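Appendix B, record 7
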Amino acid sequence: MNISELILIALALAVDATVYSFSYGLVLRNGRWPAALKLALCTGSFQAGMPLLGYWGGIEVRQWVDTWAPWIVLATFGILGLGIIRNAWKQEEAPPANEVLSISALLLVGVATSIDALAVGACMALGSLVCEEASTLHLLLCATVIGAITFAGSLGAFHSARILHHLPTRWLETAAGLILIFLGLHQI
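Structure tokens (predicted):
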């Protein structure tokens, strides 16, 4: 996977966490810096860890699905991309409550916003996102870039919420979905 593909994947994966952080930044009035850091650290950590778990799981099943791997990658990225686009155009959800995030809420947000990163990790093992068996260093680099972009996006979105509250986030989500679909098509 080249650096431009990695950055595109990281940006697409960061959208859910960024949108959540943006909406939470709209309603939180007190303790903004600690809440923003906790949210960014949690989402960035989960986004970094899930591709690693997905990759190692994908390696375990690769021998059974190797022939079909490019099509599995295309289907996975296509489903993820279409799901992101569909959710972007659904009825707007209520923003999070005006309270400090608890540990259980942070963990729930971390998992919920990084499930797609788990699938991307599996696609890294099955498809041509990385060549054959990726080195540990390469995997850690990918995870670090994905986590860092999510951290920065989450932190930036939280604090920009007061300024940019009038922008519709559905266009950002639609672009993320299209990026994933394009990357899936690129694998075949």
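Remarks on this record: Residues 52 and 121 are 6 Å apart (CA to CA). The chain has a mean pLDDT of 82.
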